[in-house]
Input
Amino acid sequence: MNSPQRELTLGAASTAVAPLESAPANSASGEAENATKLAELEEALDRLQGSERGIASSVCQQSHALVKRLLEEVRLPEGNRRLGEASLTLYHTGASCAARAGDCRLAWQIFSEGFPRESLVNLREESQRMTYMKMAFGSMIPRCKGQAP
Output
């Protein structure tokens, strides 16, 4: 059974989020599995959002991949804004983690792969889109300013 699509709004942009599936009524093991995955998701987000400077870029890369995968697999609890908006901000969160680790190449990779394409629709030329993304990268990921390829 599909529920209606949810829409999250950040600033002037809004993005539709995939519909959530309802769990079967007698699915205790499914609920337990979802709870386990939600805990994993929270831990991985904590690692990405942490403030420690000594984090390894491999931890950022693995945590980013895990969050991305789990966001597609879990049923998010109603009203949890942090998890609800995680898919919209993951490109920034992952890139910031990589920047703290001193890996600007990985930061750019994560940022550019996840950057919201709807922000680029009015830019006709690929060179304009790339310039805009590099400018946004330098502004949003200041530790790597000027280091986008």
About this structure: The chain has one domain: 32-144. The longest helix spans residues 28-49. The chain has five helices and two strands. Residues 32-144 form one domain.
